[in-house]
Design a protein that fits this description.
about 425 residues, eight-stranded parallel beta sheet, 14 helices, about 30% helix, globular, binds alpha-D-galactopyranose
Length: about 425
Amino acid sequence: MARPALLQRRVSLLSLSLLCLVPWVQSNGNGLALTPPMGWMAWERFRCDTDCKDDLENCISEKLFMDMADRLSEDGWRELGYEYVIIDDCWMSRTRDKNGTLQPDPDRFPSGIKRLADYVHNRGLKLGIYADMGTGTCMNFPGTTLDKIKLDAQTFASWEVDYLKFDGCNSNALEQLLGYPLMSKALNATGRPMVYSCSWPVYIGSLPPEVNYTLLGDICHLWRNYYDIQDSWDSVQFIMDWFFNNQDYIQPAAGPGKWNDPDMLIIGNFGLSLDQSRTQMALWSIMAAPLIMSNDLRSLDNAARAILQNKVALSINQDPLGIQGRRLFKEKTKIEVYWRPLVDGASALVFLSRRSDMPYLYHTSLEKLFFEKGNYEVYDVFQSSKLKPLKSTEQFTVSINPSGVVMLHLKPVRSESGHRTLL
Ligand code: GLA
């Protein structure tokens, strides 16, 4: 995916001169994704398993998506906001049909995508699909070249799809510069509201000047900034470090209808401990990240379920102000502090330990964390317990497990007149 720097620079000069030619369209003015999208996506957990003969339960087939729709609607996920069931790569037939239209693999999706969409809609959920701006998808199924953009958008709309993940394998920077805005326009032109997820930044270096985050916010509802997540703590750390190391570039780009996407939640799979799973949930909530799980909802254990269904963590993630949080400190002791402002003067704090010895006692006060003077109600998100009210000047201590977090929700205490109570 990485491109040589020189090529990137040349392309970005070229992009400048082409900017005026491209028909920019607002796609996120359509009231979709006003909070980060939530749901389930096949890729990280089920990849490109097409072996339905020997692995019927896990292969990419309509059954897998129907199973997940059943779980989302019957196990309490939908009510919490997890509403998108998203097909990733490897759903297509190896060839387009005689009219040039994309078609699903006939053996693995015998009922067709429209019927699958009906199944999902009947359960109060929404269906997402995957396509790729280029000559082939990342797994070499048919791609969407520039001349096919309009047709593919219309096909997805005719199937009543609600969300498109538009990947960028097998295309060059110029094709992407033209193709991503064109797809936005084509989706809008169908008249069907569809969330548009762009993988564009991953393919052009992730950061300005190559990536124009203002433009992304105008045409996409969410975008993949960086590398694919894998089922490991190393991968989670690699991704979150990139996002917070580059927060000055990417944090201002996010807001209602436009989100940075650090990739799927892998909680419930094989790679994360309980503490590390809480860490992913906490930091994805601080980042206002889309909460798209990629796990097996049919066999999720209760601990993973409790983390993914934690109502306070979800309310932090889904806060209506939609302000992405930031890292405040990295201490020499390997403790890091993260903060996100929330509606009505509330906020969330996360204390993360990057240590590998034992629980660490971290002493601080809200004043040291730049909180306004006053009294605060404090709720410990993963202990599900209300703590005693805290004065901003008061010292307090949190005990943070190795590779784990303490996540707090804080609300200013107001007097009856509505003013903050001061000390
Ligand atoms: C890329 C994307 C992944 C997934 C695969 C599918 O790597 O970044 O999220 O969609 O392609 O092939």
